[in-house]
Design goal:
There is one protein chain. With about 190 residues, the protein is an alpha+beta fold. It has one domain: 3-Layer(aba) Sandwich (NADH Oxidase). Helices cover about 45% and strands about 15% of the residues. The chain contains six helices and four strands, in the order ααβααβαβαβ. Helix 2 packs across helix 5 and helix 3 packs antiparallel against helix 6. It is globular. It binds flavin mononucleotide (FMN). Flavin mononucleotide binds next to strand 3.
Length: about 190
């Protein structure tokens, strides 16, 4: 598959089929990730591949945060369990973390580099018939979520990426064309 086709075919995939994602497939995605551009070759990315138990613990951490917003204890318990089950069932889940450099300028560049690494993961997945969905949010700072990932001190989890064979291919979301967002100067 050429890159343009992979870019055009990528979607955020919410539902995956039952086929497991192999270790070799995940390693291939991560090999693509580390080819991303990164200023001064800081190679700021670190990858955590979560097994079933860790995925459930991560889902529980996220579910607990959702449950905390619900006054009804039964509804809270249900949403916690639903989220835990959803994450446990993902065929694969990769947490992408960055090493926190002491310089704010380097940190910003390193964050950008990690996002480019994630883009590589997503496009390499399309090339292999896999789908992905990256997620961010305050949960990534949650101590329970960090513990589920196993991220080291001095690192920030920048996104969680679920991976699997798409159960369905969503239609592309409509976007403004680049021409309307571009100014050409002489
Ligand atoms: C930096 C970033 C953070 C995202 N975080 C979330 C998230 O927390 N939850 C979620 O459901 N989707 C998240 N997404 C996925 C976007 O919602 C998705 O890319 C967008 O709806 C466009 O759909 P598409 O990826 O299928 O083209 C994130 C995407 C990016 C680039």
């Amino acid at each position: 598959m050429n890159v343009s086709d992979a870019i055009a075919q990528r979607r955020s995939i919410k539902r995956f089929g039952d086929r497991p994602v192999t270790r070799e497939e995940i390693e291939a995605l991560l090999d693509a990730a580390v080819l991303a551009p990164n200023h001064k070759l800081t190679q700021p990315w670190r990858f955590y591949v979560l097994g079933r138990e860790a995925r459930r613990r991560y889902g529980l951490a996220l579910g607990q945060r959702k449950a905390n917003k619900l006054p009804d204890p039964d509804a809270a318990a249900a949403v916690r369990e639903k989220t835990a089950a959803e994450y446990e069932a993902f065929p694969a889940l990769i947490a992408v973390a960055m090493v926190l450099n002491e310089s704010p300028e380097v940190r910003e560049e390193d964050y950008a580099a990690c996002m480019q690494a994630i883009a590589n993961i997503m496009l390499a997945a399309v090339d292999r018939g896999l789908g992905t969905h990256m997620r961010t949010g305050a949960v990534l700072e949650d101590p329970a979520a960090r513990a589920a990932v196993g991220v080291r001190d001095g690192e920030r989890v920048v996104a969680i990426v679920s991976v699997g064979v798409p159960a369905e291919m969503p239609a592309p979301k409509s976007r403004q064309g680049a021409a309307a967002l571009t100014q050409w100067t002489d």
